[in-house]
């Protein structure tokens, strides 16, 4: 069966998520092998272009101004500096460069103009450019698209029901609206969540349901394990169990066969065999470079060694979804 479905039901997803672990991994690995080249893993590099001092109250985030964390506030970087980082990432083998800003939303000002410049610059280097800047209007999404933006990251983080326990300064519907604006501008959608926020299994299932029943699946789905940061309300949250991570990745893979499922935050706490289990369960993308936005991540050297060991190769730029800009929205591949 080679069909992409957008009509998954909660009971169906529940059944998949609750499948005995090895059976679930086996099924996900099968789907992955059927739809994708399982040897190819996309390597993305993150750069925080504006750090800390954020007005939001996301309970997991070290960049929220209201929490006392060790993050140093930094205004928007110079374009030149950002392009230097992008070149380094490219030289290290990254094919996607993602710029993150600790903003609630984009405002139409000089800073946004500068981000548009950065997007143009990175795009002209032949890398896929991604941004994560908070909420966007339709107009702002179009401006980013015109500047050459390839993808936009905007996470749902958890279920609609659990959302207000994690964040009170914006709503789930506002998140969905931005995703819609991004989609309509013809930009590839990157949207996923975090586990370890004190949610129930039910919340994870509901979040996956929301993602898998969007009019079009996100082209990439980051699955983050909470990185507990000192000073945030979630600093003492329990460490995410590796098997929960595997279960989440496998379920995402089965529901959204063609999406890039990204094994995102949390890899510094995982061994290579544990990460291998995630790749087997369908993960086919990682963030590389020794820093995520503000927290540590494995080095390029360590990841290269892991790729060698596991027989993985970095995915070329623009290969994952070369038809993205050509196919009609709302139309499923088959
Ligand atoms: N401010 C923008 C926003 O919130 O959309 C963009 C940057 S924000 C830091 C990007 C994403 O990073 C969040 O949506 C969240 O999923 C993830 N994130 C932030 N802190 C994290 C943490 N401590 N552990 C895991 N993921 C985290
Ligand atoms: C995503 O889902 N994870 C990345 C990226 N998208 C922007 C961010 C992870 C941030 C982890 C905490 C930090 O480094 O500040
Ligand atoms: Fe701000 Fe984004 Fe962090 Fe929330 S996740 S506090 S919006 S930077």
Entry keywords:
11 helices, binds iron/sulfur cluster, binds S-adenosylmethionine, binds 6-(5-methyl-2-OXO-imidazolidin-4-yl)-hexanoic acid, 38% helix, TIM Barrel, single chain, 14% strand
How would you describe what is shown here?
The protein has helices at 10-17, 21-35, 79-91, 110-124, 138-147, 160-166, 172-184, 201-212, 242-255, 272-280, 300-310, and strands at 40-50, 96-101, 128-132, 151-153, 188-190, 193-195, 220-225, 260-263, 285-288, 313-314. With 334 residues, the chain is an alpha/beta fold. It has one domain: Alpha-Beta Barrel (TIM Barrel). Bound molecules: S-adenosylmethionine, 6-(5-methyl-2-OXO-imidazolidin-4-yl)-hexanoic acid and iron/sulfur cluster.
How do the SSEs run, as a string of H and E? HHEHEHEHEHHEEHEHEHEHE
CATH topology: TIM Barrel
**Small molecules bound:** S-adenosylmethionine, 6-(5-methyl-2-OXO-imidazolidin-4-yl)-hexanoic acid, iron/sulfur cluster
Radius of gyration from the CA trace?
18 Å
CATH architecture field: Alpha-Beta Barrel
Number of helices: 11
Strand content: 5-15%
Distance between the termini: 9 Å
Query: In one word, what is the shape?
Result: globular
User: Helical proportion?
Assistant: 25-40%
Helices and strands: which structural class?
A: alpha/beta
């Amino acid at each position: 069966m080679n069909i992409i479905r957008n009509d998954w039901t909660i009971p169906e997803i529940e059944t998949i998520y609750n499948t005995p672990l090895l059976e679930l991994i086996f099924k996900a690995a099968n789907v992955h092998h059927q739809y994708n080249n399982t040897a190819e893993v996309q390597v993305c590099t993150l750069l925080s272009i504006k750090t800390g001092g954020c007005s939001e109250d996301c309970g997991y985030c070290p960049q929220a101004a209201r929490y006392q964390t060790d993050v140093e506030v930094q205004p928007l970087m110079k374009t030149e500096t950002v392009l230097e980082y992008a070149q380094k990432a490219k030289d290290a083998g990254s094919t996607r460069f993602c710029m993150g800003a600790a903003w609630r939303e984009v405002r139409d000002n000089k800073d946004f103009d500068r981000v548009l410049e950065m997007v143009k610059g990175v795009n002209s280097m032949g890398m896929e450019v991604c941004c994560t800047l908070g909420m966007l209007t339709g107009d702002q999404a179009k401006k980013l698209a015109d500047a050459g933006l390839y993808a936009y990251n905007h996470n749902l983080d958890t279920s609609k029901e659990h959302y207000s326990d994690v964040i009170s300064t914006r709503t789930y519907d506002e998140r969905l609206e931005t995703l819609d604006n991004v989609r309509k501008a013809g930009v590839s959608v990157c949207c996923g969540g975090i586990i370890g926020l004190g949610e129930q299994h039910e919340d994870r299932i509901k979040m996956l349901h929301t993602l898998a029943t969007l009019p079009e699946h996100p082209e990439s789905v980051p699955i983050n394990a909470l990185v507990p940061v000192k000073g945030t309300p979630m600093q003492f949250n329990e460490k995410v169990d590796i098997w929960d991570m595997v279960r989440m990745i496998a379920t995402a893979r089965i529901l959204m066969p063609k999406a890039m499922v990204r094994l995102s935050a949390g890899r510094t706490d995982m061994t290579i065999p544990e990460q291998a289990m995630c790749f087997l369960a369908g993960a086919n993308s990682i963030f590389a470079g020794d820093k995520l936005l503000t927290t540590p991540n494995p080095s390029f050297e360590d990841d290269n060694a892991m790729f060698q060991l596991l027989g993985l190769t970095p995915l070329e730029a623009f290969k994952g979804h070369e038809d993205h800009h050509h196919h009609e929205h709302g139309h499923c591949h088959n």
